[in-house]
Amino acid sequence: MNQVKKLLGVFAFAILVFSLPTIASAQRRGGNDRANVYYNPVQLKNVIKRLKSDSKDFAKFIDRDLDRSRYDGSNLEDNLNQLAKDFRDAVSRLEKQYGNGRNLNSSSREAREVLQLGNRIDRAMKRVRLSRNVQDYWKNIDRQLEDLSRAYNRRSGWRNAF
């Protein structure tokens, strides 16, 4: 009987030891929460660089697309063009403030502004019909905004942060 109890104790202990890495990794990932616990400054700098380049292209593409659409000459066209330019400028300010990225706090205000403007553009993109190219380009920027959001620990995602 004592041997059975010892064997059960050893077996229970082995199960506990083997399950610890699984439990620890689940806690580190935060379940469905995709927020990073840390950020890699070089990767984030690359995200911001791509975002800067893509935001410039996006402003050009949306302007050209709106000029060829039924929105040409409307207030909506003017507002979307201005929003795209504001977004481009906000990303440029973020890149400048981020620098080498040793301290996220120094650029958190600029990151928040980029995410807020991205949120406004995202809502506008859902209201208007633009070419597939512009929509696909925005999806690419969307992924970069998600990376930016995670780096600045916006746990609910960039759309739900505001």
Explain how this protein is built:
This protein has helices at residues 2-29, 41-67, 75-98, 108-127, 132-151. It has 162 residues and is mainly α. It folds into 2 domains: 1-32; 41-151, no CATH class. The radius of gyration is 23 Å and the shape is elongated. The chain starts with a helix and ends in an 11-residue tail after the last helix. The model is unreliable at 24-37 (pLDDT under 50).
> Strand share of the residues?
under 5%
Q: What is the typical, i.e. mean, pLDDT?
A: 80
- Helical residue percent? over 70%
Largest sheet: number of strands, sense, barrel closure? none
Number of discrete helical segments: 5
H/E topology pattern: HHHHH
* CA-atom Rg in angstroms: 23 Å
* Protein structure class: mainly alpha
Q: How many E strands?
A: 0
Short structural description:
With 162 residues, this protein is an all-alpha fold.
Secondary structure elements and pairings:
Layout: H1 2-29, H2 41-67, H3 75-98, H4 108-127, H5 132-151
Helix pairs in contact: 2-3, 2-5, 3-4, 4-5
